[in-house]
Amino acid sequence: MRGGKIKAKLRWSNLYTFSCLRPDNILESEGAHLLQGPGFSRVVVCNHPRSQRSPVRYPSNYISTTKYNVITFLPKAIFEQFRRVANVYFLMAACLSLTSVSPFSAVSMIAPLAFVVGLSMAKEALEDWRRFIQDVKVNSRKVSIHKENGVFRFKPWQKIRVGDVVKVEKDQFFPADLLLLSSSYEDGICYVETMNLDGETNLKVKRSLEATFHLGDNESFKDFTGTIRCEDPNPNLYTFVGNLEYNRQIYSLEPSQILLRDSKLRNTSYVYGVVIFTGHDSKVMQNSTRSPSKRSTIEKKMDYIIYFLFTLLVLISVISSIGFAVRIKVEMPHWWYMQPQKSTNLYDPLKPALSGIFHLVTALILYGYLIPISLYVSIEIVKVMQASFINQDLNMYDEETGTPAEARTSNLNEELGQVDTILSDKTGTLTCNQMDFLKCSIAGVTYGVGSSEVELAAEKLMADDLGRQSTESSGVLVYKYRSTQSLLNRRSDFGASESLKNRRNDFGASEIEVVTSQDRKELKPTIKSFNFEDSRLMNGNWINEFSQDAILLFFRILAVCHTAIPEVNEENDNINYEVESPDEGAFLVAAREFGFEFCKRTQTSVFVRERYPSNVQPVEREFKVLNLMEFSSKRKRMSVVVQDEDGIILLLCKGADSIIFDRLSDDGKMYLKDTKKHLNDYGESGLRTLALAYKRLEESEYLVWNNEFQKAKTTVGADREAMLERVSDMMEKDLILVGATAVEDKLQKGVPQCIDKLAQAGLKIWVLTGDKMETAINIGFACSLLRQCMKQICLTVNTDLVTQNSKKAVKEDLLFQINDALLMIKKEKDPHAAFALIIDGKTLSYTLEGDMKLQFLSLAVECASVICCRVSPKQKALVTRLVKERSGKITLAIGDGANDVGMIQEADIGVGISGVEGMQAVMASDFSISQFRFLERLLVVHGHWCYKRIAQMVCYFFYKNIAFGLTLFYFEAYTGFSGQSVYDDWYMILFNVILTSLPVISLGVFEQDVSSEVCLQFPALYQQGPRNLFFDWPRIFGWMANGLYSSLVIFFLNICIFYNQAFRDEGQTADMVAVGTTMFTCIIWAVNCQIALTMSHFTWIQHLFVWGSIVTWYLFLILYGMVSPIYSKDAYKILLEALAPAPIYWSITLLVAIACNLPYLGHLSYQRCFNPMDHHVIQEIKYYKKDVEDQHMWTRERSKARQETKIGFTARVDAKIRQLKGKLHRKYSSLTVPNTPTINS
User: Which cofactors are named for this entry (predicted)?
Assistant: First the structure.
């Protein structure tokens, strides 16, 4: 054997027609350079030594997703930091501190700024380092590259260059954009999975040029050379224009021959390809876009607060400078000790205005502590810690896949606690994207007695209906639970629909059979993708059915009409199928379970192992595959032409019911009426359906058609697609209907419970799906987004108006429907009435235009539930933008596929589900989870906590800086606007950076008003976020007022007490250093006691940070006082020798701390006693352990602590209770009326 592997003997080119097959377009020699000019300048010299290749230097295959590199980090990171207004102000202040007008030393201004900016830059560097490590992993992947003389060696991806020949093996990713040269199949076919590109799980088929088929092993590349001229790098995934010059011939290239980077080779042992685009030139990298910059609502409001404080800063600075200028002009000439005749510009009585301007600069620096310099960096630290808690939450860890939740950005943590509307995808998000074969219709008879998730919900609703009727007749409601098995046996005697129809007659009016999901779970088959139960078809019993011929043909269509490849599992000899879609896999598993096992495929044949009750051994039958017309989204059907062992030629077809029904012959509609009814029933059960049909061909008829078909296949030119479609239509008509299939895309675990909890939390939920309306509606019932008594408003386009091509008339009709629905809602008098809005993509395209979108939104917000069906990815994004921009509320979009990326990026918060549809949604998201049910904890627990923590933290930050900064203003006014600071420079440095930073960080990281269990038990607590109770303007100004009050108390109490009081034993009064240090001690005590009162939940870390900050202040005074007077100046031994021996120092500290916090303590006490918030009540119940001692009260409080909702299981229960109460009331009234005395008028 030579360097390659043995080539498989499948020549798919004999079968495929549309997506993969392109005839070799041999161009004339003069056309070799037709692709020159703008946009077509790339020339790839294949398999030459690198030194002999094109003089144009193309990028290497090294990719980088980092934001910085070694050279650009410093300038870029500094630029990012000084985009913030507050940092620009502090930079200006730091520069001015180098001048003579600065009230502080340069170190006291530069050091905090350098610390804050440096910490933020370090965070940026850490995040970028993680991206760099990920890039290194990708760039270090190994691939086999041709060196010379037919020798291939493994090299890292980053070493690949344009023109290299590479060999990629099964289940490996393609390292660059390649031109497919050959594969392990003789005709160059290969299967490609593009999940990382477009989110689709079905396999794509690629085919190389016939001219390169023979390049099948390593040695064949010894003498291979060629030249490719093609388009320049661009982001178009589905187009490619180029040609290959090889063996003195020029061949045109098509997208079907291009293998894109990050797609994966499947079902093919190996392929050879030549590199066309590398690194950032590859199409996937051309498509990579930066996620839109998102800022939280709190962060946006913080900017306004900063502007307000800056305005306040400028105002008091102007007041200070005016006061200074007046005193310089009026009073300074009389101050002989200031020597006014020798004054500088700062103190010049002749130029008071100039002196005032100089003092304005001094004041702007002096009062700069009103704006918290460490606010941004503290918030960033807190958000990173909060994100790590989300990532490590074991309750959001999926054990099946080993996938944890991930906060991909920490900027939006608090937004999770303020969501108003959730916009969700359906398939793969609410459902599993796991197809189970559940029911089928064959020859007008429905088979399959298992229940879908929707049917289980319907049975419960039916039980409610029967219960209501029995209550009216007897006043007694009796539920009789029977096993699911007895129901299945009963159903096996006749159709499932008949069983449901006659159930009430069988059991009587007051006996209601309820099939529980628990029973169903116990009986659920363990066979993946097969959940079918019906003894009439299983174990060969179908042979006894009246329509056994049709059933046989139905099973054979399932086993033969596909493009799957069987693979034998070496461990257990079972056959696994490599399929293009989950539906196809479910059909093959179903065929196998029915006794028709697809076991082998050759180049020209499909082999099916058929089991019959009369035969001991299965019979292997061969079906020669003559032609295959594969499925596409445009065709919505797939067909194969086969010849069985008896020489009979058949066309087998499966596809969308609307397509198949239009192609039936008059004789083929025998079962059409019954099949349509069954398909409607399946759709109402939330199942996905396909119709199956066939056509028998005469050999002469087939030969004539095949001749036309082969001509179309080999046609070169733009008309080829149209010719193939026309010829296919000639064959795919006059079909005979056999039956239909119904597969279930199952609900994900915990979806109904999660939706119910989110509804109780007051969240609105919209479903945006590409599925048809019937399926989406019934999934809505299964999820409890819809319920039976809910009034459905369906907006639809009048088809007659559409055919008349009158867009204006269509919009007028829709506007009338919207206004009529709004009027109906307005006139509804029942406060418990619920409305659901259902609209399809065609209608949505009209309603999203012009002013009508506002009318549509006004109707949608009035409805309890909104379901948009048949919507495109662009429409998903447009609906999300409409809700976000026009409602002004926080939106969250959640999805799992590439088609959800638009709405995920458009929403305020994007959540990606790491499911089976690739990682596109996750990569575009802000948060990722593995199951929809984890959204409950992400929002109701982490969202609630993060919102309150950040809100309280920011409010406290402004409080403490106002309390501290205004004391500087008071002192300056008290000392004649002299510009003198009462505090030592080092005190100023330590205030924000060390002494008050750790307590506020602990508040933002560890604070919990209630535990996670209580958050889930009392979902209405979540509404504190959307209602913005903790960061509205009244609360913000309340905290500012508290800071103003504290500053007044701290300054004036200190001044009043120290002004005339003896400070030392000898009777001396305190100097400025003693007053300033005492005042600063009072500030440290006041603000740290304030944060202790703010906290509801204490851990040892919070105790350490709060009380440790106070201890740190005293330790600093001791150590700073021990430093040489050259550095400590007047603060030399200030604590040990001056302050500590003085009782007045300790007394005033205690007095000020109590006085500052007494109003807040009083407010808190009053609020808890007379106007408590929800969490106050719960905290008190938990503190006195009433949740344990008085379960009745705890249950009552839990029932009250949820938002009144009209969707979810709880809403359904509430509606049931109201109905029962109403009936009991009417029954009681009817019993008491006869005893009521008659009053004659």
Answer: Mg(2+)
Do 629 and 17 contact (CB within 8 A), yes or no?
A: yes
Q: Which two tokens stand for residue 1063?
A: 């400070």
Q: Exposure of 561 by Cβ count < 10 A (0-12 exposed, 13-18 middle, 19+ buried)?
A: buried
119-145 CB burial, b ≥16 within 10 A, e <16: bbbebbeebbeeebeebeebbeeebbb
Does the residue 678 lie in any domain?
yes
Q: CA-to-CA distance for 667 and 682, rounded, in angstroms?
A: 25
Q: Whole domain around residue 898: which residue ranges?
A: 398-433+763-800+807-935
In a domain? residue 23 = no
Alpha carbon dihedral 914, 917, 922, 927, in 10-degree steps, equals -50
Q: Give Cα separations from 780 to 227, 343, 787, 868 (angstroms).
A: 56, 83, 8, 11
Q: What proportion of the chain, given as a percentage, has pLDDT over 90? A: 24
Give the annotated binding-site residues for ATP. Answer: 425-427, 584, 631, 654, 688, 769-771, 870, 876, 899-900
Q: Alpha-carbon dihedral of residues 250, 254, 255, 260, nearest 10 degrees? A: -10
Per-state percent for the chain, helix, strand, coil, to nearest 5 = 50, 15, 30
Residue 630: both structure tokens together? 């594969």
Residue 1230 pLDDT grade (very low, low, confident, very high; cuts 50, 70, 90): low
- What's the CATH number where 227 sits? 2.70.150.10
How far apart, in Å, are the Cα atoms of 697 and each of 52, 56, 1075?
A: 58, 58, 107
At 820, which CATH number? 3.40.50.1000
**Is there a domain that residue 998 lies in?**
yes
Q: What secondary structure letter does DSSP report for 37?
A: S
Cβ atoms 916, 429 nearer than 8 A: no
Residues assigned a catalytic role: 425
| Residue 879 included in any domain | yes
Q: Tell me: the pLDDT tens digits for 713-743?
A: 766 565 767 788 888 889 999 999 999 999 8
**Residue 454 dihedral angles phi and psi, to the nearest 5°:** -65, -40
Report residue 531 as tokens.
């959940």
**CA dist., res. 682 & res. 678, Å (int):** 6
536 neighbors 429 (Cβ within 8 angstroms): no
The CATH number given to whatever domain includes residue 690 is 3.40.1110.10
Choosing from 1134, 1153, 1168, the residue where a domain stops is 1168
Question: Are 674 and 585 found together in one domain?
Answer: yes
* Cα–Cα dist 684/681, whole Å: 5
- Which one-letter amino acid corresponds to residue 559? A
Domain shared by 858 and 767, yes or no: yes
Distance CA 531, CA 70 (A): 57
Known binding-site positions for Mg(2+): 425, 427, 896, 900
Question: Which CATH number is 1076's domain given?
Answer: 1.20.1110.10
Q: How far apart are CA 979 and CA 1054, in angstroms?
A: 20
- Looking at the fold, whether 912 and 956 belong to one and the same domain comes out as no
Cα R_g (the chain), whole angstroms: 38
1047-1070 core/surface letters (b: 16 or more CB in 10 A; e: else): bebbbebbeebbeeeebeeeeeeb
Stretch 477-504: mean pLDDT: 34
Distance CA 514, CA 517 (A): 10
- C-beta neighbour count of 1184 within 10 angstroms: 11
Count other Cβ atoms within 10 Å, centred on residue 395: 11
Average pLDDT over residues 375-389: 88
- Contact assessment for residue 202 and residue 194, using Cβ atoms and an 8 Å cutoff: no
Last residue of a domain, one of 1147, 1168, 1189: 1168
Q: Identify whether residues 949 and 1065 lie together within a single domain.
A: yes
pLDDT tens digits, one per residue of 464-474:
555 544 544 43
Domain count, the chain: 6
> What are the tens digits of pLDDT across the range 866-884?
988 878 777 888 899 999 9
